[in-house]
Amino acid sequence: MNRAFSRKKDKTWMHTPEALSKHYIPYNAKFLGSTEVEQPKGTEVVRDAVRKLKFARHIKKSEGQKTPKVELQISIYGVKILDPKTKEVQHNCQLHRISFCADDKTDKRIFTFICKDSESNKHLCYVFDSEKCAEEITLTIGQAFDLAYRKFLESGGKDVETRKQIAGLQKRIQELETENAELKNKVQDLENQLRITQVHASPAGSMTPKSPSTDIFDMVPFSPISPQSSTPTRNGTQPPPVPSRSTEIKRDLFGAEPFDPFSCGAGDFPPDIQSKLDEMQEGFKMGLTLEGTVFCLDPLDSRC
User: 93-107: per-residue pLDDT in tens?
Assistant: First the structure.
């Protein structure tokens, strides 16, 4: 293995500086994986990492798992590892954290680089398989380092600090987006639980009352059972109010209660009056006529 960010004096770079400083150079490769290493650089370090990841990939391949394909985007800011279909960033290796890069001369498809993880501060070795571009990808990463170092000298180190601040802000934005997504899911769960609770709390057979039907004159039929409704009919007229019966019994000038034949029973009359009424009823059955207040036994006129 060779090429650790140094190039020969007679070796020219493959890309224009603008392509790496203003844009990026894309490459397609297979990602064998990453593993932790003890040293940030060294040929033997990356060689052991390659053997380890090749063996792990051979086992996964025997189990039917394919080696995942990735897209590499190389620029003066770092190396991004993306899903080629969804363009989702799987790893973002900033250039100032990459400490070693090399391609394997015994296996021209393999290239690797060592990057310090921003969260765990561990050195991770990333190994890739590219059938035709392993050496070219290594040279492109070396050119990105050369351009970034020149830019660092021109800016007096301010550019590196700016990139660090931007990287920190991007990481914080990603954390906030993840937290926001979790909060949205919690709110949605609470709304679903509240909706289920309201459905169980409402009566199963509850129905809205129906308006009473009307007759051919567009009037609500009278029902002695139901109370008089105060709702106006369709013709706009309000039914007359029903006079309420007073619970207080009215009396005459002598203090006597008025006679009510509907509320009085047979037991309410004195014995002599009751006998008179019985005689009157019997007399009417026998054909008697009533003249004034005297009963007469004369037979009825046939002309009547």
Answer: 999 899 999 988 888
